[in-house]
Amino acid sequence: MLECMVVANEASTELGRKVAVELGLPFSEMIRKRFADGETYHAFPEDLAGKNLIIIGATHTDTSYQELLDLIQGGKYWNAATINVAIPYLGYSTMERTKPNSYEIPKGVTRTRQIFRARPNFVAFVDLHSEAVLHAHAGEIRTEHVWTDELVIEKIRASGLTDYVLVSPDYGFSKRVARLASLLDCPHTAADKDRYDTDKTIVGQISSAVKGKTAIVCDDMIRTGGSIIQTAKRCLEAGAVQVAVMATHLVMAGNARERFQNSPISRVIGSDTVPGVHSDDLLDVYSVAPLLANIFRRHLKINPRLSG
Description:
- By secondary structure, this protein is α/β, with parallel strands linked by helices.
- The protein has two domains: 4-148 and 290-300, 3-Layer(aba) Sandwich (Rossmann fold), CATH 3.40.50; 149-286, Rossmann fold (3-Layer(aba) Sandwich), CATH 3.40.50.
- The protein has eight helices and 15 strands.
- Helix 1 (13-23) packs across helix 8.
- It is globular and about 60 Å long.
- The chain starts with a strand and ends in an 8-residue tail after the last helix.
- The mean pLDDT is 91.
């Protein structure tokens, strides 16, 4: 009998529960206590020796990142048969390289390397900003980059939007947008974006391909929203009749939500990879739980009726 245990770091508990339901497995809630000095106690709720441990853990904060490391290493300590991790959103993922003589730390790589050094058997990442982090180990860890294309296509088709053009806010993301456009059988184009500071960009003109159509601006994540809102405005200047946004990771840092509500963007479509994100009057959120469940089902050859 294939025995599995599904857990999550605290922030990703909601998504972890959804993945467990999709797998037809119970979700195991970690035992947590907070001590007066700020330290955190963790315990698994039952014996996991010989079981395949499945961990769901976004690393969007330093606390969540550290907790994911603790869960992996705790699984090793208590003799889990295998440790299998899904990181729905990888924090610091845009910091995968350094500028010459900057002496900055490429935390996207160094932090992922620390996760690999904790020695999980398998790690899946969702819609990475850069695949460079996949190579931050010596080949002993099995990794998979999971694309949300099927979920995105399903969501856009069900959105009620018609006569649309997919728009990339820069040429770096245009290959992904072209792939989505091919699957949706719709046109696509890209803006010319130039980054001149950490969170500051200038977006140039948009092609007339958006004229008279609904522009759907696509990106891997929304942090402050600056470049996406600029792109939306350029789309309207080029003749688009309305603009929507699709982004996998809805970080929505600082006053991003307020900026979107005051922008010409009609809706923001995204996933639940970042903890705490739900559908409301601005956001239209789909879950990546079915996608992650399929990855684990295939990787571990899970049959829900036979799993413990």
